[in-house]
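For the sake of transparency, this paper describes our internal protein records without simplification. Such a record has a labelled line for the sequence and another for the backbone structure tokens. Nothing more is needed to write down the fold, since each code stands for a local backbone conformation. For reference, a complete record is included directly beneath this paragraph.
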Amino acid sequence: MTRTRIGSLIVFSAALSFATASFAQVVERKALTLSAAKRIVAAAEADAKAKNQTVVIAVVDDGGHVLLLERLDDTQVASVEVAIGKARTAAIFRRPSREFEEQIKNGRLASLVLPGATPLQGGLPLVYEGKVIGAIGVSGNTPQQDEDIAAAGAAVFK
């Protein structure tokens, strides 16, 4: 073999090893679908209406990006961003947004400056096969009422 062929063989071999190593690092993930988000929102909406409560319901993917948003009639406009923030917090931190509100109540004020955190009760992660693949956030009423409505939506997902 010539030096050129040996060099080419080494480069090809290295490229193949790199491609195999790169491929081995790819992870398959489950994703929350729009169809699932619609079912989650419908259940939360039904619960809110049964309780005669006006809320905003937001469902986000695992990165906290909005998949679906619904504002029931007569719900305060300010609740739109709050619902999104609660959902995003539950998704990206992989825990209920209530935990951050509790931390602040217990004196851990550093929770106020966590990037992307909305430390208010009412955001719940959506877990599938042990992984958070999205979240629901509800805003418009008391913290417990918001979380109860979010739980009604999340229950459909489980």
